[in-house]
Every structure is written in structure tokens, then in C-alpha cells.
Amino acid sequence: MRVELFQKYASILELFDIKANFMEEHGNVTKVYTDKGTYALKKAMIKGQQRNNILRNMQLLTENGFRSMLPLYYTNDGRFLIYEKEEYYYVMPWIENADRAAEQNEHYHHMFRTLAKLHEKTTKSKEITEETVTKHCDTMKKKWEAERELLDQFVEKCEQKWYMSPFELYYCSYYHQTTRAYEFAVGQLETWQKEMKEKETTRSVLTHGNFSRQHFLIDGDSNGFFISLENAKEASPIQDLVTFYSRSLLTYPVARTDRFEWLVEYEKHYPLLKEEKHLFMSYLAYPHAMVRYVLQYEKQQRKESELASSDKLQRASWMMNNVEFLISQIQQAEHMKELAKQQ
Q1: Deepest of 34, 70, 129, 283, by most Cβ within 10 A of its Cβ?
Q2: For the packed helices 258-269 and 104-121, what is the interaxial angle rounded to 10 degrees?
Q3: Number of folded domains in the chain?
């Protein structure tokens, strides 16, 4: 065992009555080998009220019959969260991800099924007024319009130059694509607003808060478990989906159907409502990455080179292509459903 790891964590593990034989660091998780088994010591990125949220959320999930999460161990004096040297830690079982070398696509199918189960088990109906809907829509449109104006000003400034930087050339070539994404996002937001005019309630669920492959493990018995629930909170079910796809689609454009199939798998167990799907497509389509990189460049809030900035912008363009492909599959599926109803 590395001496520094033992010196760093031995006092924490002692509170859980755990005596380590060996330790391995894996990012924010330390694998602890003992005579009684293997444990995971997690450094938790927790702020303020999140300290109480973890235990409350775990209790809520248990009360609602959701078992697909790893339990937390308690110290001898009844604590599950330890504050040591300005960091929070907790201990849970170590699960060797048996599915790591297995078919990746099936891992995602299992993960989306389990997310649907999480949302289904924690669904609440909340009252909502037309005033609340209008206020949210107006707030988002105002924010997006301000960002659109900044993007327009940036492209005008670029086009006035005799010689543009590589970043500026890239952006000018992506400008119309960005505009289309913006207009589609606003259109879907307005459609959501119209759909909600007749609604008196909306759905909320306990979202994972950081839904990703890294936070879903499958053991040797094919049981799936969510980990890292520090950011779990009550929100719309689309929040987990938008978070996941915003990361997953920020990659080289490939015309594959697997990402759509994962959403289909989710909806087999927890179908999105019509208005939720419009809001999902709106948030997903809005060119957040493009806006972020352009504003960083414009304000000179970057430390990377011109090449690195240009590469980021290109990935933002790739994401818009991937989002457009996914949304086209969603819309086609919705169209087929409508045709089936008419027959």
C-alpha cells in the first residue's frame, strides 16, 4: 500500500471500523481492500444543503421501492458523511463493473431502463399555472434572444475583417447551422407553452443529477446500480435526458440509431408526455456549446490556443449535427404514432 494513501485515509476508515490492507485511487473513488471485503471510499463534491439531500434522497428511493442504488455505510457513531480536511467522504460497497468488457450498447439499454424505473418510482404531480408557464417561457426566450444578438454581432464583426482567424472562419461557416438550431429550439419552446395552456399539473421526479455511464455499474449477476447521487433533486424527467445527451452527442457525427434506441428503451417503461418531449427537444436543440465557446472567445476568457478553440467550435458543430439526427428520429417516430392512431 502506498504510505501516503494510508496516511490520508486511515483515520476516516477507522470511523467505519474498516482496516485497510491495500488501497487504489480511481479518481474521486479509492478502492479499499480488507479482510472483510472490498469497499469504495468516495470523495463527494458536496455543497451546503446537499449534505442532507443525500440521506433524504436515499430514504425516499427506498420508501418508493427503488433498490437499484448502492447503500451507504454508517460510522460507529451513526454518521454516513465524514468531513475531513475540507472534503466530504462516504463509504459504500465496491462493485466490480462486470459489464465493462461486455456489449456497450446493452449497458446503455440497462442504464436507461433503470433510469425510467427511478423516474417512475418517484413521480409526483404538481400544480402549475399558465402564469408560471408563461414566465418560464419568457425568461428562456429573453436569455436566448440576448445570446442570439451577441452571436449576430460577432459574425458581423468577423465578416468586416480582411483576414479572419481560424476560429472566426469556422464560426462564419457554422453560423446558418447555429441559426437553424436556435430557431428550432425557440419553436419547440413555444409549442410546449401552447401545450401547457390546457394543463393544470405537470410531472416531477427525483432526477439522478449526473446521469452518465460512469455512474451506473452492473455486477456479475447483471444487477444495475446507480452511484454518485449527490446531485439528485426533484425536477422534470427530461433533465436527466438532456444532461446525458448534451454530453453524449458532443462527438464526431455518426449516423447511428443507438442513441435513439436508448430513448425508446426508456419510454417503454416511462413514456414522456407530449409537452415534455417538446421541451426536451427545445433544450437539446439549443446550441449551448456553440454559444459558450463563441462567448469565451469573444471575451478572451480562454487559456487554450487558437487551434484548441477552433477544435472546440468544430465539436459544437458536430453536436448540432448529432442532435439534428436524433431529433429527426424522434419526430419520425411521433409521426408514425399519429398515423397509426388515424387508422
Answers
A1: 283
A2: 30
A3: 2
Task: Choose one of 40, 73, 93: the last residue of a domain.
Answer: 93
Sign of CA dihedral 108, 114, 118, 120: positive
Helix %, strand %, coil % of the chain (to 5):
55, 15, 30
For residue 260, is pLDDT > 90? yes
Residue 105 confidence (pLDDT): 84
The whole domain housing 43 covers 3-93
Considering the domain architecture, whether residues 174 and 307 belong to the same structural domain is answered as: yes
Model confidence pLDDT, tens digit, residues 216-245: 999 888 899 999 888 899 999 999 999 999
Q: In this structure, is residue 68 part of a structural domain?
A: yes
What's the pLDDT score for residue 16?
A: 93
HSE at residue 137, side-chain half, CA atoms within 13 A, is 21
Q: Is 11 helix (H, G, I), strand (E, B) or coil?
A: helix
Picking from 93, 114, 148, the residue at the C-terminal end of a domain is 93
Assess whether 300 and 195 both reside in one domain: yes
Distance CA 185, CA 280 (A): 10
3-state secondary structure of 57: helix
